[in-house]
């Protein structure tokens, strides 16, 4: 009797490079699914799945319970707030992420946001198209040079943002309570122990920490009030780290110079969201990590991650819950 093929569920949106990698594995049955698939249909697919790759689909306790054969879950990305890690760990199922596959993309997007805000890109485009060249003097662009940026979270992305900001000759402050001051100083940055005391010093605050119970609502109204009224707040991490009602009030009342968001509490963002009416805000659709290059890297890394577990040689450095491997 022929040996049963291992079943791998893959989103139909995954980059073709991931599909190409799977073609070399005749022992794997690949089943594509839609990110918008109804839960009941997804649960039916999970019934005999050995591994699953996730893009937008959540993997919570009901999904995990529906997958009795499950051996590995892979996120096509680095965030995993839509995955019940505890439920996976209880079943000794590893969750794997894509490491640094999109770190450069997100770091560049954060820098792009900084430049777009200070160079007033939309305004300069508008006055040029309208032939109102004299208006360039009314609200002139600013420089990154000599300004101070506060980076919240100094992991794979935060470290890359710091390197790019230092290249722009900015002063770089770092708040990360899980890292030693020596580590941050070694990267040419200034370690700050207290977020509230650091905020009044910063011309830019850029968020690169994970979303968890400690960071949800981290930037609430009192914290935003500690920032300079000319400062800019940037979030390319996860929605919910900033209190969006408080941010709206701060921007609408002139409490901040501006903000840039790639992520939101609710995604997709409602088109009638009051935030979207504000001229001081620039936005993108959770796209910081989805450059053409990053999509290819993430798809390949995700497939390799899952195959490594099925082949019993897991990519340990990409496992979120390594205790399940012991």
List keywords for this structure.
326 residues; alpha/beta; Rossmann fold; 2 domains; seven-stranded parallel beta sheet
Largest sheet: 7 strands, parallel
Major β-sheet strand ordering: 8-7-6-9-10-11-12
CATH architecture of the largest domain: 3-Layer(aba) Sandwich
Total domain modules: 2
Strand residues, percent: 15-25%
- The outline comes out as elongated
The named CATH superfamily of the largest domain: NAD(P)-binding Rossmann-like Domain
Q: Output the radius of gyration.
A: 22 Å
Topology, element by element:
Layout lengths: L5 E6 L4 H7 L5 E6 L5 H8 L4 E4 L6 H5 L6 E4 L9 H6 L4 E2 L6 H17 L1 H9 L18 E5 L3 H12 L3 E5 L5 H6 L3 E2 L3 H4 L5 E4 L13 H5 L6 E4 L8 H9 L5 E4 L19 E3 L8 H19 L16
Parallel strand pairs: 1-2, 1-3, 3-4, 4-5, 6-7, 6-9, 7-8, 9-10, 10-11, 11-12
What does the model show?
This protein has 326 residues and is of the alpha/beta class. It has two domains: 6-101 and 292-325, NAD(P)-binding Rossmann-like Domain (Rossmann fold), CATH 3.40.50; 103-283, Rossmann fold (3-Layer(aba) Sandwich), CATH 3.40.50. Helix content is 33%, strand content 15%. The protein is built from twelve helices and twelve strands. The protein has helices at residues 16-22, 39-46, 61-65, 85-90, 103-119, 121-129, 156-167, 181-186, 195-198, 221-225, 244-252, 292-310, and strands spanning 6-11, 28-33, 51-54, 72-75, 95-96, 148-152, 171-175, 190-191, 204-207, 232-235, 258-261, 281-283. The strands form two sheets. It has a seven-stranded parallel sheet. A five-stranded parallel sheet has the order 2-1-3-4-5, with helices on both faces. α1 packs parallel to α12 (292-310) and α5 packs across α7. The longest helix has 19 residues, at 292-310. The mean pLDDT is 96.
């Amino acid at each position: 009797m022929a040996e049963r093929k291992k079943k791998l569920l893959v989103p139909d949106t995954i980059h073709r490079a991931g599909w190409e990698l799977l073609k070399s594995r005749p022992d794997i049955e690949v089943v594509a699914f839609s990110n918008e698939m109804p839960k009941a249909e997804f649960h039916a697919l999970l019934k005999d799945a050995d591994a699953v790759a996730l893009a937008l689909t959540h993997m919570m306790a009901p999904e995990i319970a529906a997958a009795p054969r499950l051996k590995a879950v892979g996120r096509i990305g680095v965030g995993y707030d839509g995955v019940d890690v505890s439920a996976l760990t209880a079943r000794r199922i590893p969750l794997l992420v894509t490491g640094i596959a999109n770190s450069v993309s997100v770091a560049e997007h954060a820098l792009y946001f900084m430049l777009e805000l200070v160079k007033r890109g939309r305004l300069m485009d508008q006055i040029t198209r309208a032939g109102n060249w004299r208006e360039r003097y009314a609200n002139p662009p600013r420089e990154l040079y000599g300004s101070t940026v506060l980076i919240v979270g100094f992991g794979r992305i935060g470290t890359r943002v710091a390197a790019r900001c230092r290249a722009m000759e900015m002063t770089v402050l770092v708040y990360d309570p899980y890292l030693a001051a020596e580590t941050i100083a070694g990267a040419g940055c200034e370690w700050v122990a207290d977020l509230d005391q650091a905020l009044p010093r910063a011309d830019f605050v850029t968020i690169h920490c994970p979303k968890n119970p400690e960071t949800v609502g981290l930037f609430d109204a009192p914290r935003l009030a500690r920032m300079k009224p000319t400062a800019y707040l940037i979030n390319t991490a996860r929605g919910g780290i900033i209190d969006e009602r408080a941010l709206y009030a701060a921007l609408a009342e002139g409490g901040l110079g501006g903000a840039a968001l790639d992520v939101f509490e609710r995604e997709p963002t409602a088109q009638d969201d009051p935030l979207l009416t504000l001229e001081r805000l620039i936005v993108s659709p959770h796209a910081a990590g989805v450059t053409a290059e990053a999509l290819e890297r993430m798809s390949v890394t995700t497939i390799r991650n899952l195959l490594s577990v099925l082949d019993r040689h897991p990519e340990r450095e990409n496992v979120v819950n390594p205790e399940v491997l012991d």
